[in-house]
Write a structure and sequence with these properties.
Number of helices: 14
Shape: globular
Order of helices and strands: HEEHHEHEHEEHEHHEHHHHEHEEH
Number of strands: 11
Strand order of the largest sheet: 1-3-2-4-6-5-10-11-9-7-8
Length: 458
């Protein structure tokens, strides 16, 4: 899936040009941080190939996460030692080229978590982008700057990547739409790999129409306006993981679905029990930590995902890490070195889990079924919170996030509004390949869903 252009990168040897670029980036960021929420690594303008007004994205601006290759620029991967030891890219990622060809203008690269190994959005080297919805809270990662750029209205949309949740999480924290496509449907060439089994190119927008337009370009979709869901399944057990009253949220979903698709479309299920029954290989990952506050089968699913993620991350970057010994922030450093020291134990079992889950959820949803569940278990954590205090929150979050990650299904995070002055989101998920259906549903129900959530609080 990944075809890393080794000609674009020179490992281990510091390049004078790259070092100069790092210094320039730091200076530009210091000047831009206050006015642009600290979202950007570097500002520049890449204009579309054509100025034709007929192109679908003409007049729109976008930014890209600093994990995508842009010809002539160093791809920084969120870490100054990475930028220092790699040369400028010699080509541009196809996903970026597709967006440019559709008429949009790229205005720069955005801050990301180091080596894409966090969902917090805090970067000790380049600063943490300011969450436009809650400045005292984390913006979410690892596509932090891309989400903030959209949330702060600096661009119309942006590109990020989602491996374990790196588009869905910052979208939910920053009060915007975030789309993780079906695994493998958007090219990841020219994107630094994190863990190929889970890596996807995702995108953010404030407007569901723009979210859909960008999706049609990246996914190569034609008209999908006629696609409608056959059923919407509310994962009741997943909503019970929320740290605030979940009835208000599920009521808004149900009422929105009833309005557009009829009450017969609504179903309820325990996702955890279904996964427990159908994904038998998960027995190898049970009892891997305290699960009394979680859904056991989904906690095991998360454990399997993170195990395979560590293995693939090590294969991709272990040699560079052990040779360069880069400076990394707290939390990320521990995770990176844990991955480097990991073994390939259970890798085959992880692949069986992936196959079994995909088959089980495909049967569960059918061709046009939708699964509704929380994106994350609550509002964004406070800035610089102690990692130990986030342990339960992270465990619940990855249990929810791993469902789409391991199955390869598509998922969209939809902002509902604010609860006690903090952003709240819900997710919809469809089977692999039904991305167009999901984009169409979001466009249809978005305004009503937000309004119903708002009025449910009065």
């Amino acid at each position: 899936m990944f075809e890393l252009n080794t000609k674009s990168y020179s490992f281990y040897q510091p390049k004078k040009k790259a070092t100069q670029v790092c210094v320039q980036i730091q200076r530009k960021r210091m000047a831009a941080k206050d006015s642009e929420n600290g979202a950007f690594m570097e500002k520049f303008t890449l204009k579309p190939d054509s100025s034709s007004p007929q192109l679908p994205l003409t007049g729109l601006t976008f930014a890209v996460k600093d994990i995508f290759d842009i010809d002539g620029y160093v791809t920084g991967f969120g870490n100054p030692d990475w930028a220092r030891t790699h040369s400028a890219a010699t080509s541009t990622a196809p996903a970026v080229l597709a967006i440019l060809s559709a008429g949009a203008t790229c205005v720069g690269k955005t801050v990301m978590d180091e080596m894409a190994y966090s969902i917090n959005g805090e970067n000790v080297h380049y600063g943490t982008p300011t969450n436009p919805c809650a400045p005292d809270r984390v913006p979410g990662g690892s596509s932090s700057g891309s989400a903030v750029a959209v949330g702060a209205m600096l661009v119309d949309f942006s590109l990020g990547t989602d491996t374990g949740g790196s588009v869905r999480v910052p979208a939910s924290y920053c009060g915007i739409l975030g789309f993780r496509p079906s695994h493998g449907v958007v090219s990841t060439r020219g994107v630094i790999p994190m863990a190929q089994t889970f890596d996807t190119v995702g995108w953010f927008a404030r407007d569901p129409a723009i979210l859909k337009q960008v999706g049609q370009i990246l996914l190569g979709l034609h008209d999908v306006s006629s696609a409608t869901p056959s059923k919407i399944i509310i994962a009741e057990d997943c909503f019970k993981l929320l740290s605030f009253p979940h009835d208000r949220l599920t009521r808004a979903i149900v009422q929105s679905v009833e309005k557009f698709y009829g009450s017969h479309s609504i179903q309820y299920a325990s996702l955890g029990n279904y996964v427990e029954e159908k994904v038998t290989s998960l027995k190898h990952f049970h009892n891997t930590g305290n699960q009394e506050y979680n859904i056991p089968s989904l906690a095991a699913l998360s454990s399997a995902m993170r195990s395979l993620q560590r293995y693939e991350f090590k294969k991709n970057h272990g040699e560079w890490i052990t040779t360069v010994k880069p400076s990394m922030g707290p939390g990320i450093s521990e995770r990176v070195w844990e991955a480097v020291r990991s073994t390939d134990e259970h890798v085959d079992v992880c692949q069986r889990v992936k196959t079994e889950l995909n088959a089980a959820l495909t049967a569960f949803l059918g061709d046009f079924g939708i699964l509704a569940l929380p994106t994350v278990p609550g509002p964004p954590p406070k800035l610089q919170a102690e990692p130990s205090s986030l342990e339960i929150f992270r465990a619940k979050a990855f249990s929810l996030l791993s469902v789409a990650g391991v199955s390869g299904f598509c998922q969209v995070s939809i902002p509902l509004g604010m609860y006690e002055n903090l952003p709240i989101a819900v997710s919809l998920m469809a089977k692999k390949g039904m991305d167009g259906l999901l984009l169409n549903i979001v466009e249809t129900i978005y305004s009503t869903l937000k309004e119903l959530f708002k009025t449910a609080g009065h």
